[in-house]
Write a structure and sequence with these properties.
InterPro entries: RNA_MeTrfase_FtsJ_dom (IPR002877), SAM-dependent_MTases_sf (IPR029063), THUMP_dom (IPR004114), THUMPD1-like (IPR040183), tRNA_sulfurtransferase_ThiI (IPR050102)
Protein name: THUMP domain protein
CATH topology of the largest domain: VC0802-like
Largest sheet: 7 strands, mixed
Order of helices and strands: EHEEHEEHHEHEEEEHHEHEEHEHEHEE
Structural class: alpha/beta
Bound molecules: S-adenosylmethionine
Number of domains: 2
Distance between the termini: 50 Å
Keywords: RNA-binding
Pfam families: FtsJ, THUMP
Oligomer: single chain
Radius of gyration: 24 Å
Number of helices: 11
GO molecular function: methyltransferase activity; RNA binding
Number of strands: 17
Strand order of the largest sheet: 13-12-11-14-15-17-16
Helix content: 25-40%
Strand content: 25-35%
Length: 349
């Protein structure tokens, strides 16, 4: 399967849209993107997918727009030119002598603006496809070269009257009136971090970079992303939350190359992995090297069994004692902890 469409909804309603798309009996996979209100669909063919959605629009209450995708490449101007060129060559019989426009929708940070890219690609097409006798017409075009950028990934399509962005206007009107989807906590884990925030609000103030180890499905990340500029969520599992400032590093924490994948001083480390106590604390300490002085670590100790909790805590403390600059600030039992869990708050000195 390949990416066939970006699908948008009102931010906060992504889980609802994903749920209703997943019910459709067509071969597809629906994934989160790091951007609010945008999901991506993988299937076999963008034309089929678009037609299927058009025919079943009455079953889709949360879909606002569907933007069909034909080619995917890295967000790099030379790569984009190459892929635009491939699409034009593929469709040259249909577009000969016609007028066109280039449009770019960009999400993320880049060293060019959308307008600059539109001009570069427009000029590239005129210069390189003189034989097709194409003309630019910004308003009344016959075909549109559509470029969707999601940070480092770019999706390119050529639209015409039949193959174009599909909008469900009734949903736009209806969702405007709906209050923001009021999420319940994603899971019990989320209640742990919410409880901590009430007891120790200062730990969560002025956060630039947070590293959350063992993030899936994303209860902690969801809460932390509202407090921090950027949250690195490390987990080989999927996240059920998305936001512009969440970077999902989809691997085990032991395989993360800090310098390559994060390379920032950390303001808060959180670890809620379901690993054995010693393994888990060693992972926390791997990242503690990059924690700023006077900043905190929130670490859930998950004892092997209820009756080993004391023994497990002692083992963890003996590992911590080897690190002079990491001090135990508090050990608490949160209401949301299971009977095997303790929450350890550490502070770097
Ligand atoms: C209890 S869940 C975490 C729940 C999460 N805090 C939340 O709020 O949704 C434990 C997670 O730890 C992850 N995990 C286990 N071993 C890991 C490792 N070595 N590196 C990163 N994540 C790991 C698992 O994949 C699992 O998703």
């Amino acid at each position: 399967m390949k990416p066939v469409a970006l699908i948008t909804t009102k931010p906060g309603f992504e889980p609802k849209l994903k749920e209703e798309l997943e019910k459709l009996p067509i071969k597809k996979k629906i994934s989160w993107t790091p951007f609010r209100g945008i999901l991506i669909a993988y299937s076999n063919n963008p034309y089929e997918f678009l037609n299927y959605i058009k025919e079943n629009k009455d079953n889709l209450k949360f879909l606002l727009r569907l933007i069909p995708l034909e080619l995917k490449c890295q967000t790099d101007i030379e790569e984009i030119k190459k892929n635009v060129s491939l699409l034009i060559n593929e469709k040259k019989e249909y577009i000969k002598g016609k007028s066109f426009v280039v449009r770019c929708n960009r999400r993320g940070q880049h060293n060019f603006t959308s307008e600059e890219l539109e001009k570069i690609i427009g000029k590239y097409i005129l210069d390189n496809f003189k034989n097709l006798n194409l003309k630019v017409n910004l308003k009344d075009w016959d075909f549109k070269v559509n470029i969707e950028i999601l940070q480092d990934k770019t999706y390119i399509s050529i639209f015409n009257n039949d193959f174009n962005e599909f909008v469900i206007k009734e949903n736009i009107e209806r969702l405007k009136k709906l209050k923001r989807y009021n999420e319940r906590p994603l899971n019990r884990s989320e209640r742990k971090i919410l409880e901590l925030m009430k007891i120790y609000p200062d730990i969560f103030e002025n956060l630039n970079c947070v590293v959350d180890i063992g993030s899936s499905p994303g209860g902690w990340v969801k809460v932390l992303s509202k407090k921090a500029k950027i949250v690195y969520a490390i987990d080989p599992g999927d996240l059920k939350v998305n936001a512009k400032n969440i970077v999902h590093i989809k691997k085990k924490a032991e395989y993360v190359d800090f310098k390559k994948e994060i390379d920032k001083e950390i303001d808060l480390i959180t670890n809620d992995t379901n690993l054995y106590p010693e393994e888990s604390i060693l992972l926390t300490l791997k990242f503690a090297k990059y924690l700023k002085k006077d900043k905190y670590i929130i670490h859930t100790l998950k004892a092997r069994k209820y009756r080993t909790i004391k023994e497990d805590l002692e083992k963890v403390i003996s590992i911590l004692n080897k690190h002079n600059n990491i001090k135990i600030y508090k050990i608490i039992n949160l209401k949301a902890n299971t009977k095997n869990e303790l929450t350890i708050i550490l502070k770097k000195t």
